[in-house]
Write a structure and sequence with these properties.
The chain is of the alpha/beta class. It has helices spanning 14-19, 35-39, 43-51, 55-64, 100-111, 151-161, 179-190; strands spanning 78-82, 89-93, 116-118, 132-134, 137-144, 166-171, 199-204, 207-211. A hairpin with a 2-residue loop joins strand 4 and strand 5. Helix 6 packs across helix 7 (179-190).
Amino acid sequence: MIGKPGNSVDNPSMNDFRRRKFKPQKGFGGNPLEKESWWKMTKDMAFRAAEYDLWNVIEKYAKDNKLYNFAMNLVDGSDWRNLQRTKFSAEKAKLANPLQKEVNLAKILTENGHSWYFTPVNNADGVKNPDGILDGKTAEMKILTSNKLDKIADRISECDKQKVIVSIIHITDTSSFTQRNAVAVAKNTLKKPLKFVKEVVLVFGDKVSHLK
């Protein structure tokens, strides 16, 4: 029994955590309401959560915070992935395994004032999970090698199916169409009834346009 007879015990909401200025134990990664902080949990913390039968509770809180790909069995702290032949390293969940082209895109994003954190692969729901977290929002990277302008809209739609807030489109072939035309397509796609995607970050070569 918890407390005195007649007392009720409620499960706290995410807003309760905010009001009470919840302070996580060391290893959580700072503010527990920041999406990357969930992935910064250590394996020891996951084991302790299992001992207290809190796995499902924690995963529910994460999903309530729109971190749909979070899974307790994939947490193991954080480390870094270096971009070959450079001094740049991208922060990532330890079990994340980003490709070099994705680390290169992370470099472009951070050089343009954004924060980026790679998350692990999780195909539990039959759909590839987001690549990571951009400025505290779930995001998916799409490397566009096609010379067809309408493929931009297709990639944004794919991101929407992956339940991300931000769709990042990196256009590596800048000779087939202009940045202006690419931005126009992205803006028009954002006007359509997308369920999850609210923002598009269009990277034309190394030039970044953030569209909302």
